[in-house]
Write a structure and sequence with these properties.
It is built from 11 helices and 15 strands. The chain has about 375 residues and is α/β, with parallel strands linked by helices. It is globular and about 75 Å long.
Length: about 375
């Protein structure tokens, strides 16, 4: 998208994500307005409302929205009833103007989705995957999955492809780390290889970071935490991990290692975990799942979540992954009960099942650049 001068502005001290009226930051202001329009849905917002919420002047808002309309990203949503003067025109985001693809590269399955700017899924595909077959084989499967959800003559421009993979990994370079049980993946430059194969922008991040990115978005799966807020997304699938959103921003850590939730030790000298340690939350929880004790698995998960809540004081705990999806009520109730019993504050955090999957979150990692989200 082209970025023009945002024009002059003001600051009203209202807090939140304010506009910045400098030519060097014009892209910031466009993203800010697009994010507000995304959150407003089909009813849209008036230019005066956009100015009031951002601190930009009405003139700046008019210039930016005219530019966005010329790019097909913004359109009229209707007019407000007249109160004596000229009826005000509301503006809305045009969801179908651009698309992004998200891929969840799991240890035994692959899922790909194509989403519009509002985060709505317009195409999807899923199938089995042998992660142990090695990086080159998996790359071929990803390329084919992206083609399956993108091959339509009427598809709008593709902003890029987001890939969520098991950690640890370096999200800046898109290089896989020492994935437990799969040493052949260590050091594989997944993003670089996919850029070469797909010919579009590619973002690679941990599956848990994709999960929390979706939960904090302005799309249909967004958790709607006031003011951005802080939340933790706990993923229970072939492994267990967590994604962290602190003060509205995905927290990855200095070495991309944040969120190794599953390998906190809950039982000294407990059963051996595949990471080499003993008594990790992951082995305790998945062993309970394996013997059909989902309530017990939920309690183990709750103990680990309580440790995180005590440490980070988050507003919300979101639960996702295939194991949770199979019995969401059991896991939400079990985790909530543990948090309520261990919470030191008057109000424990909200606990709920995630509303969208990791593949949608991977697409959100691409859309985040459009809407100014990390």
């Amino acid at each position: 998208m082209n970025r023009g001068n945002a024009g002059g502005g003001r600051s009203d001290g209202s807090g939140g994500r304010g506009g910045v009226n400098l030519p060097a930051l014009r892209g910031h202001n466009e993203a800010l307005l697009l994010d507000l329009l995304r959150g407003a849905g089909p009813d849209g917002l008036g230019r005066a409302e956009l100015a009031g919420r951002t601190g930009l002047t009405p003139q700046a808002v008019s210039k930016i929205t005219a530019r966005l309309a010329a790019e097909g990203l913004v359109a009229e949503a209707g007019r407000d009833a007249s109160t004596g003067g000229k009826p005000r025109t509301r503006l809305r985001l045009v969801p179908h103007a651009r698309h992004a693809v998200g891929v969840h590269l799991d240890r035994d399955a692959l899922r790909a989705v194509r989403v519009d700017l509002a985060g709505g899924v317009v195409a999807q595909w899923s199938g089995p995957l042998d992660f142990g077959a090695g990086p080159r084989a998996a790359v071929g499967e990803v390329v084919r999955a992206v083609a399956r959800v993108s091959s339509t003559a009427q598809a709008p421009p593709l902003l890029g492809v987001g890939v969520a993979a098991p950690g640890p990994l370096d999200w800046r370079g898109g290089v896989l780390g020492r994935v437990t049980g799969f040493p052949e993946w260590e050091g594989f430059p997944l993003r670089e290889v996919l850029v070469g194969r797909l010919g579009v922008a590619v973002v690679v991040d941990k599956d848990t970071n994709a999960g929390v990115a979706a939960a904090g978005s302005g799309g249909p799966g967004g958790a709607g935490v006031p003011g951005g807020g802080s939340s933790v997304y706990v993923h229970v699938g072939t492994g267990i991990g967590a994604g962290l959103r602190l003060d509205g921003v995905v927290h990855r850590g200095a070495r991309s290692g944040a969120g190794e939730f599953g390998h906190q030790v809950l039982m000294l000298d407990g059963p051996r975990c595949r990471c080499g340690g003993r008594g990790c939350l992951e082995v305790l929880c998945l062993e309970a799942v394996g013997r059909g004790d989902l309530a017990g698995a939920a309690r183990v998960l709750g103990e680990g979540a309580a440790n995180l809540v005590a440490l980070l004081d988050v507003d919300r705990v979101l639960l996702g992954g295939r194991v949770v999806a199979g019995a969401p009520e059991v896991f939400v109730r079990g985790v909530r009960e543990v948090l309520e019993s261990r919470c030191l504050s008057a109000a424990p955090p909200v606990v709920e099942a995630a509303r969208v999957g990791v593949a949608e979150g991977a697409a959100e990692l691409v859309l985040g650049a459009v809407f100014g989200r990390g």
